[in-house]
Automatic annotation (TrEMBL):
<dbReference type="InterPro" id="IPR001611">
    <property type="entry name" value="Leu-rich_rpt"/>
</dbReference>
<dbReference type="Pfam" id="PF00144">
    <property type="entry name" value="Beta-lactamase"/>
</dbReference>
<dbReference type="InterPro" id="IPR001466">
    <property type="entry name" value="Beta-lactam-related"/>
</dbReference>
<dbReference type="InterPro" id="IPR012338">
    <property type="entry name" value="Beta-lactam/transpept-like"/>
</dbReference>
<feature type="domain" description="Beta-lactamase-related">
    <location>
        <begin position="11"/>
        <end position="126"/>
    </location>
</feature>
<keyword id="KW-0378">Hydrolase</keyword>
<protein>
    <submittedName>
        <fullName>Serine hydrolase</fullName>
    </submittedName>
</protein>
<dbReference type="GO" id="GO:0016787">
    <property type="term" value="F:hydrolase activity"/>
</dbReference>
C-alpha cells in the first residue's frame, strides 16, 4: 500500500526508533531497574526524579500520560499523580510502530504497549493513548468503558 511505503522491517537503525524487543523482555528490564540490578539506587533515583530548570519542574518539554501532573527526568517522563502516585514512562514510535512502557513505581505495576498503528493524520492515532488510559483503569480496579473507542471508530468511517 502506497501510504505505508515508509515502513521498514528491521531497517538497521540502532537506538532511536530501532530497538526491537518483546513485552516479556521489557518487563524484565523494567523490574531490573527497580530492583537495582542494572544501576545503583542512587543512579536510579537521579534518573527518575524530575529535572528542575530555574526552580521549576521541566514539564513543558514532553507531555505525560495525564495533563498537569508531569515532569521530565533523564529520558523519562515522570508524573506525581494524586491517585496512582509516581508514574515513570517512556514511549515512542517509528514508522508504522508505537511502543510505551508505563511504570507505576509506588504500586509495583506496569503497562507495556507494543503495536503497529501508523502515525498518520488520522484521528485513529489516538487509540494507543486511549487504550493505555483504559488499561490503567482496569489495572487499578476502576470502571472502564469502550464508548470513547466506539465514538472514534464511528466518526472515522
Amino acid at each position: 500500500m502506497e501510504e505505508h511505503k515508509y515502513v521498514y522491517f528491521l531497517d538497521g537503525v540502532k537506538g532511536d526508533g530501532g530497538i526491537k524487543s518483546t513485552v516479556d523482555d521489557l518487563l524484565k528490564w523494567e523490574r531490573a531497574i527497580y530492583n537495582n540490578e542494572l544501576v545503583s539506587e542512587q543512579t536510579k533515583e537521579s534518573i527518575i526524579d524530575p529535572v528542575f530548570i530555574k526552580g521549576e519542574a521541566a514539564n513543558g518539554y514532553c507531555p505525560c500520560l495525564h495533563e498537569d501532573f508531569g515532569g521530565y527526568g533523564l529520558g523519562w517522563k515522570i508524573e506525581n499523580h494524586p491517585q496512582y502516585k509516581k508514574i515513570i514512562l517512556h514511549e515512542g514510535y517509528w514508522a508504522g510502530y508505537y511502543s510505551g512502557l508505563i511504570s507505576y513505581k509506588d504500586r509495583n505495576k506496569a503497562i507495556i504497549m507494543l503495536n503497529n498503528l501508523d502515525f498518520t493524520d488520522n484521528e485513529l492515532n489516538k487509540i494507543p493513548y486511549l487504550l493505555t488510559l483504559t488499561l490503567e483503569k482496569i489495572l487499578f480496579g476502576e470502571k472502564a468503558g469502550v464508548q470513547v473507542f466506539e465514538q472514534l471508530i464511528i466518526s472515522n468511517r
